[in-house]
Amino acid sequence: MSADLSLISLLINASPLVQLVMLLLLVVSIMAWTIIFNKSKSLKQARQELESFEDRFWSGGDLSRLYEQSSNHAEARGLERIFKAGFKEFIKLRQQGGPDKMAMVEGAQRIMRVNLNREADNLEGSLQFLATVGSTSPYIGLFGTVWGIMNAFRALGNVQQATLAMVAPGIAEALIATAMGLFAAIPAVIAYNRFRSDVERLVSHYDSFVDEFTSILQRQAHVPAGEDT
User: Any stretches that span the bilayer, and where are they (predicted)?
Assistant: First the structure.
């Protein structure tokens, strides 16, 4: 490859608009990769916290003691936060001595659903950006390509005899924009699909826990206060 067609030379000699498109795609790609690494780490931590809390919850220990432990854990997240919010509401309604036992259970369930939705929103954070990058980056790159090719052919109109050597640099720099668009889009799409699947599995676990814990609270509602197990 000649020096005129080297990658650095093509980038430097590209038209200002094509350079702007390339810079935009580079920034978007860096942001997408940053989100990918951070989201991968946070979802892995969420899975570990889920497994850890489920082990403690289903170990057969005292729910009140587990609630005290969760209350002392200020940074409780995920399933632990859902449990803590639901059990706290259940205890509060029970201490008020309401005659309708199902109202206590339904109140706790509503609180757990609210917290479940919040946890789902937290897990889904930044995924929309990846989806946007995956769907728009190829078109942004294509815009830079079309503009670069258009400029290359416009330059041919100013010469009497056109050669491939004259048009090649302009077309090559234009195609780099498409390549950069795909470079930004492909990882974003792959990561979005993977993370979306991971989030759906976690939320499904949370939802199942809410139903299972609601059944436990229904039994607890018929046990006199002070005799909880």
Answer: 17-37, 127-150, 170-192
CA–CA distances in Å: residue 14 to residues 2, 140, 181, 223:
16, 16, 16, 77
Tell me the residue type at 199.
V
- Please report, rounded to a whole number, the percentage of residues in the chain having pLDDT higher than 70: 81
Is 229 a domain residue?
no
Rounded distance, CA 64 to CA 87, Å? 8
Instruction: For the chain, give the mean pLDDT.
Output: 84
Q: Are 140 and 118 spatial neighbours (Cβ–Cβ below 8 Å)? A: no
Q: Look up tokens 């390549």; give the residue.
A: 179
3-class DSSP state of 82:
helix
**Rounded alpha-carbon distances, angstroms, from residue 181 to 153, 176, 196:** 22, 9, 22
Spatial separation of the C-alpha atoms in residues 51 and 228, rounded to whole Å: 25
> pLDDT tens digit string along 41-62?
999 999 999 999 999 888 877 8
Cα angle: 158, vertex 142, 148; to 5 degrees = 20
Q: Is pLDDT above 90 for 13?
A: no
Sign of CA pseudo-dihedral 113, 119, 122, 128: negative
Query: Domain containing 124: what range?
Result: 3-220
